[in-house]
Specification:
The protein is α/β, with parallel strands linked by helices. It has four domains: 1-78, Single Sheet (N-terminal domain of TfIIb); 85-158 and 349-538, Rossmann fold; 172-345, Dimethylsulfoxide Reductase, domain 2 (3-Layer(aba) Sandwich), CATH 3.40.228; 591-710, Barwin-like endoglucanases (Beta Barrel), CATH 2.40.40. The protein is built from 26 helices and 29 strands. The strands form eight sheets. The chain has a seven-stranded mixed sheet, with helices on one face. A hairpin with a 2-residue loop joins strand 2 and strand 3 (47-53). Helix 8 (236-249) packs antiparallel against helix 11 and helix 8 (236-249) packs parallel to helix 13. The longest helix is centred in the N-terminal third of the chain and has 19 residues, at 101-119. It is globular.
Length: 714
């Protein structure tokens, strides 16, 4: 990193007239929108020389995680793209030369309008990866252009969990941890994925909160729990059905809620009868006694809440039914939309619920689905497209190749990482089949190198955005430094393209701030007014919605009730019950494969310093785990003659990668764990492109079969 300035001495970074340093407020937007932390940026001569957490920000209260602390490395990294670039070599060669912004935007509009005229607007896909802040505006651009194909990385993130819960309840609420007496934490690791929320969780624990943790890995939370149910990867559904068996057979369920507000309880009760504690133990690896104790604790400690990770339970070949089974426990115990349970609070803006009402949804959906062709994946995954308001990006490479039901010819992507696809080489090769591929990003990534045209985006330090917090707080950020060289905010790019790609869209023509004002109108907020509060503004007269709203409005399901038997799934030809199935590759479902690949591979867990691949290039964060490593239990390592740090081959039926061995008890015997996004050891290469859930198309990242062997010396 070279910012062009050097500062020495203990007083060199103190703000004031003598040093010329000014503190300016912004946010870190590297990770999830629910976790963005306030930043105090120390700025001198247009350069960020230091960062601290903003004490006034209610989310992080002055703290920063390792990612935020490395912000200077993030802003000034040598890989930052600093000018528009056009490909000069062969497709995928990574050879580019600079062009002007006018040339770049003219090229994009000319190419996309030509495709629209020749084969229709649906041939253009608009894709949003990280960070997520530009999503409402990109989706509006896509639909105003006429394309139904707005897709995002939510095709492998939180959307399937929302889909599964939506099949049961029509919606889902988050855990009211501060009011709960029991918290069932299912495959979630807030210490790594939502660090700013952990102190409140531990405060609640000190006040007596009971915590049950479910998941195959030992996490930092494990030491703070009453029970840890260490399941075999892929068996969440079976464990949930086993807990339901105990709750129903012992009469611990909420009889009033079940009798008055549910559909299909009898069929569900009959199905879970076979999941006795002993049978469930044989499937999950969790002792029947522990299953019984955990079920009793959750069912009898009122109120109780469920906290799930955004994707761990749905990253399976039976992920939707797994997640339906575990979220069914909320209604079964009467904790749905109850105080201290899972309270339903609609999101205000960008996934953040806080009681504020905005017009984000209507803004994004500028054209009804009925006026556009079917989305990517709609023919193969109709439930996804019924329940999720975007295309299914994991199906994208298949449609690029098949050209059915119509050809995909161009892709305008913001923050895309092709390595998030299962069989990432399959996606890489598919991108090279497009007529035209534009990638907008901060860094010259592996995906950007495949593009025909690359545009440089800005960090959150160089742009403005609206940010809501669950603590009834809002901030309109201002740039604390100018954009690096010719980089620009994503929204500038989107609205400039909108002037020509969506000429009939009045809001796209009026621009970014006018569009934000339109979205915020129901909240009686305006951008100009928020600019007066650079560190943020505490919202007044904002109340969370009442509990038990279903008593007045029913449930947003076909029956108007919580559905143990899903009407949507039944109509689509799937089993309406949340039935358990083994992962498509497991010691039980494919014993022939397990003979050669006896270990269960689970991938994609979080490390605290990484968010996908975005901070892999930073020396501070990468230095905490510099080498791609496979976590393996010491027993399995000893059986294979493997010692700490040995070079090993991690292989599946599809392929192999070279990594180092990390011997650790956080992983159970018979299971290995591999973190994703290392370009030199891409674990997604080992997964078949079609190893997906048949309902959601979510990849089975969390459970397949592999082997680990010590690499032989040449």
């Amino acid at each position: 990193m070279n910012s062009g300035l050097n500062f020495e001495g203990p007083d060199s970074k103190l703000p004031g007239e003598e040093t010329g340093i000014e503190i300016r407020h912004t946010i870190c937007s590297i990770c999830s929108p629910r976790s963005h932390c306030g930043i105090d940026a120390y700025v001198k001569d247009g350069v960020v020389i230091k960062v601290e957490g903003t004490k006034e920000n209610p989310n992080n209260a002055g703290t920063l995680c390792s990612k935020g602390a490395a912000s200077r490395q993030y802003i000034y990294h040598e890989d930052r793209i600093r000018t528009p670039l056009i490909r000069k070599g062969d497709k995928g060669s990574g050879q580019f030369e600079p062009i002007s912004w006018d040339e770049a935007l003219d090229t994009i509009t000319t190419r996309l309008l030509k495709i629209k005229d020749e084969t229709g607007p649906e041939g253009v896909v608009f894709y949003a990866g990280y960070s997520k802040w530009m999503r409402p505006f990109l989706k509006r651009l896509a639909h105003s252009f006429g394309s139904p194909n707005y897709c995002t990385e939510s095709s492998v993130c939180s959307a399937a969990a929302g889909l599964a819960a939506g099949l049961n309840y029509g919606t889902m609420g988050g855990p009211e941890t501060g009011k709960s007496k029991c918290l069932l934490v299912w495959s979630s690791n807030p210490f790594y994925s939502n660090t700013s929320a952990v102190r409140k969780l531990l405060d609640a624990r000190e006040r007596g909160l009971k915590i049950i943790e479910v998941g195959p890995l030992i996490t930092p939370l494990t030491a703070h729990t009453d029970f840890h149910l260490r399941i075999r990867p892929g068996t969440s559904g079976a464990l949930a059905l086993g807990m339901a068996h105990v709750i129903i057979e012992e009469g611990l369920y909420d009889h009033d809620f079940v009798e008055n507000w549910t559909l299909g309880f009898e069929e569900y009760r009959d199905y879970v009868r076979k999941y006795t504690p002993s049978i469930t133990e044989g499937i999950t690896g969790v002792s029947g006694d522990l299953i019984t104790k955990a079920a009793r604790l959750y069912a009898t400690t009122k109120p109780a809440a469920l906290m799930t990770g955004p994707n761990a339970t749905v990253h399976h070949t039976n992920g939707i039914q797994n997640h339906r089974a575990l979220t069914a426990l909320i209604g079964l115990t009467g904790n749905f939309d109850r105080e201290g349970g899972n309270h339903v609070v609609p999101p205000a803006y960008l996934y953040v619920p806080n009681g504020v009402t905005t017009r984000q949804g209507p803004f994004m959906q500028s054209r009804p689905w009925e006026e556009m062709p079917p989305r990517v994946g709609q023919d193969q995954y109709p439930v996804w497209c019924k329940m999720v308001s975007e295309g299914q990006a994991i199906h994208l490479p298949f449609q690029i190749r098949s050209k059915k039901p119509y050809p995909i010819r161009a892709l305008l992507a913001f923050g895309m990482n092709y390595r998030m696809w299962p069989g990432s080489d399959f996606m890489k090769d598919s991108l090279n089949m497009l007529d035209f591929f534009v990638d907008v990003d901060l860094f010259m990534t592996d995906t950007a190198r495949l593009a025909d045209l690359v545009l440089p985006a800005c960090t959150s330090f160089e742009r403005s955005e609206i940010k809501f917090y669950t603590q009834k707080y809002v901030i309109w950020t201002r740039p604390v430094i100018p954009p690096l060289e010719e980089s620009r905010p994503d929204t500038d790019i989107i609205f400039d393209l909108g002037t020509k790609l969506a000429p009939d869209d009045d809001l796209m023509q009026k621009g970014y701030e006018a569009s934000v004002d339109w979205i915020l109108e129901p909240a009686h907020l305006k951008v100009e007014a928020l600019k007066e509060y650079p560190a943020g503004y505490r919202l007044k007269d904002v109340a969370l919605p009442p509990y038990q709203k279903y008593e007045k409005n029913g449930f947003s399901t076909p029956s108007g009730k919580m559905e143990f038997t899903s009407g949507v799934l039944k109509e689509a030809g799937f089993d309406p019950l949340p039935k358990y199935e083994e992962p498509r590759l497991s010691p039980f479902s494919t014993p022939d494969v397990a003979k050669d690949y006896p270990l269960i591979l689970t991938t994609g867990a979080r490390l605290p310093m990484f968010i996908h691949s975005r901070t892999f290039r930073l020396s501070w964060t990468r230095g905490l785990r510099p080498d791609p490593m496979v976590d393996i239990n010491p027993k399995d390592a000893d059986d294979r003659g493997i010692k700490q740090g040995d070079s090993v081959t991690l292989s599946t039926k599809r392929g192999a990668i070279q990594v180092k061995a990390n011997l650790t008890e956080i992983i159970a015997p018979g299971v290995v764990n591999m973190y994703h996004a290392y370009s030199e050891a891409d674990v997604n290469l080992l997964i078949e492109p079609d190893y997906v859930d048949p309902i959601s198309c979510y990849p089975g990242f969390k459970a397949l079969l592999c082997e680990v062997k010590k690499t032989q010396s040449a």
